[in-house]
Design goal:
The protein has helices spanning 20-23, 25-50, 62-72, 76-109, 111-125, 133-140, 144-168, 172-180, 185-219, 228-237, 241-261. The two termini are 42 Å apart. By secondary structure, the protein is mainly alpha-helical. The protein has 2 domains: 23-58; 60-264, MetI-like (MetI-like fold, Orthogonal Bundle), CATH 1.10.3720. Helix 7 (144-168) crosses helix 9 (185-219).
Length: 275
């Protein structure tokens, strides 16, 4: 029996709605540039006009910050600070991933385990990583180890929850089909589980990266003598507010680039009904 769907020709098929990102790329880019320009103008208005009489804020305008940043970028100490911070960030994220992915798989595949551990997980998740700083410093001393530990604590739970949610969303039928075709356990994992978890894990890593980058700066104010967080503290102590603003700009720019690396800039989703 032939259905009406079978008789539809390509000419009569309902076309997919046009993608406004493909249709108007120049307009979208112009809007983004306009927003950035507006923020810079507001920044200049606040620093150079509204708070022009303030001894601190008047020295942190966009022109002063850009000039200080240009000078910082040619200094070896800036490269050393960025390298140290990125090394701590990646180390903490690696530890969080190694621990968080197996935990997420366990919680997502074993409902009883997730239910039983939920109070403890939520308690630990909602405790600020910086609240652990005094204890971590007492246990691990100063230098890199406490900072890496705090970053790992910050990044752990987004990865656990993201992988757990992705595991629960996997289609069990795909694994059954693979087993019926004679696939081994590893082949089932490679063909169904890993592809199915790629998207959730990427999103979880992006969230974890954002939280870890935010925690990194205050964490580097405890017992270390280099890094971007230490640079912020050092600029403040030396009353070098131009350099303080420039360091803040540098931190934001690096964080933006890191997010782009994980695909944050490629997320162009929009509602089909225009909201």
């Amino acid at each position: 029996m032939t259905t009406s769907a079978d008789t539809l020709s390509p000419a009569t098929a309902v076309p997919a709605p046009p993608d406004p990102h493909r249709r108007r790329p120049a307009i979208w880019a112009a809007w983004r540039a306009a927003v950035v320009l507006l923020v810079v103008l507001l920044w200049a208005l606040l620093a150079d006009v509204i708070f022009a009489g303030n001894a601190v804020l008047s020295r942190m305008g966009p022109i002063s910050a850009a000039g200080a940043l240009a000078g910082m970028l040619v200094e070896d100490v800036t490269l050393a600070a960025v390298t140290a911070s990125l090394g701590r960030l990646l180390s903490g994220l690696l530890i969080a991933t190694v621990i968080g992915v197996p935990l997420g798989l366990l919680f997502g595949s074993r409902a009883l385990v997730e239910y039983a551990t939920a109070p403890v997980v939520q308690f630990l998740r909602m405790t600020s990583p910086l609240a652990w700083a005094p204890l971590v410093i007492v246990l691990l001393g100063s230098d890199d180890a406490p900072v890496i530990t705090l970053i790992a604590l910050a990044a752990l739970w987004p990865i656990v929850l993201g992988v757990s949610s992705g595991t629960r969303a996997l289609d069990p039928g795909a694994a059954l089909v693979a087993r019926s075709l004679g696939a081994t356990r590893w082949e089932v994992i490679r063909s169904t589980v890993i592809p199915g978890l790629a998207g959730p894990l990427r999103t979880a890593l992006r969230v974890a990266l954002g939280i870890a980058w935010v925690v990194l700066v205050p964490a580097e104010m405890f017992g270390v003598s280099n890094g971007l967080g230490y640079a912020v503290l050092n600029a403040r102590d030396n009353l070098d507010y131009e350099r303080l603003a420039a360091t803040m700009l540098l931190i934001g720019a690096i964080g933006f680039l890191l997010d782009r690396i994980l695909g944050g800039g490629a997320q162009r989703g929009h509602s089909a009904i225009g909201f």
